[in-house]
Write a structure and sequence with these properties.
The structure is a homodimer of 201-residue chains.
Chain A lengths: L13 H20 L2 H8 L3 H8 L2 H8 L6 H4 L10 H14 L2 H14 L3 H19 L8 H22 L2 H4 L3 H17 L9
Helix pairs in contact in A: 1-2, 1-4, 1-7, 3-4, 6-11, 7-8, 8-9, 9-11
Chain lengths: 201, 201
Amino acid sequence: MPPRGRRPAGAPDAREQILLAARARFAEVGFERTTMRAVARGANVDPSLIHHYFGDKEGLLVAALVLPVDAEQVLAGVDADPAHAGEAIIERVLGVYDSDAGNRARLLGLVRVGLSHEVASAALRDLLGRTVLTAVTRVVAPDHRELRASLVGTQVGGMILGRYLLGVPALRDVPAEQLVSAVGPTLQRYLTGPLHPPSSP
Amino acid sequence: MPPRGRRPAGAPDAREQILLAARARFAEVGFERTTMRAVARGANVDPSLIHHYFGDKEGLLVAALVLPVDAEQVLAGVDADPAHAGEAIIERVLGVYDSDAGNRARLLGLVRVGLSHEVASAALRDLLGRTVLTAVTRVVAPDHRELRASLVGTQVGGMILGRYLLGVPALRDVPAEQLVSAVGPTLQRYLTGPLHPPSSP
């Protein structure tokens, strides 16, 4: 247990305490209504320390927004078998959230913040953009790389929204394998297939 | 301009004013922090009138949660050509939100409310479930109807999230036609195709 009273400025965990308090506050009341003062109170530090570490509220937001899981670690090696990378991606993602309610809760907080204000949306968009592009970069076909990566993001994001954040029964209550079978080919086409319908006139 | 002061209980637009005020309040501070008193103030009515019309806060939420567009109207006739229903669905949806910033703003409010609290998530889930199932009911293959409809929902929802709510550049800045070409076949497979990869061992 840390001692009562405000932490000294140099306490090694002060920065992490600030980020924890910021994440909680942002998730609860959104970007606009979060004040540096409230975060400082939550972290039990002096507000000046937040300015010292993060500059302004936007800097604090960017530092506080992190994915619940290390995407690079989760997706390491999905390019080993490029023809099945689509299945591998959705399988790994579902594994991470199926197995850990804490990950799901942190994800919900992240999305709430990201939709709370234009500044937060921009930060979340950048975070997701970097993550998805990094995740698929060794698999994705050379044409339309960003569009392909973003399409993967729409399907994975929509699945996360439906299965975990909204809890749609038909998505929530089926085994992950069934969703991997259904969604894997979609991701595979976005990664390496033709982006136009095969039968267009 | 309506006269100043509280509306009389029987004013024909009082119910609609309450719903407008409730939507704004729910979107701003979420389900839990919204009070009947604040909604009554916003609608310029007596709080008892809200109870009269909607019972409790949950009843008010369910009545206030509506899609920005009439989904049945938007998707009318997509089953005319069942083999291209997937393309038709995404084309109609993009048309509705590309053309009207007000629709996009109302959608953002709806999703914010839906993620603000478990009660609101349940209400949004039911609303989306009914909508999607109604929209695809005449096209979807007889096996796994709910799963198929829900899969359509994940891809359409993820696209809406990326293009409009987060504004991912590769999705936001391309012509709708390009997204229709890319996503149409996905929806088509979810509606009528095999839900397993063709090449599974």
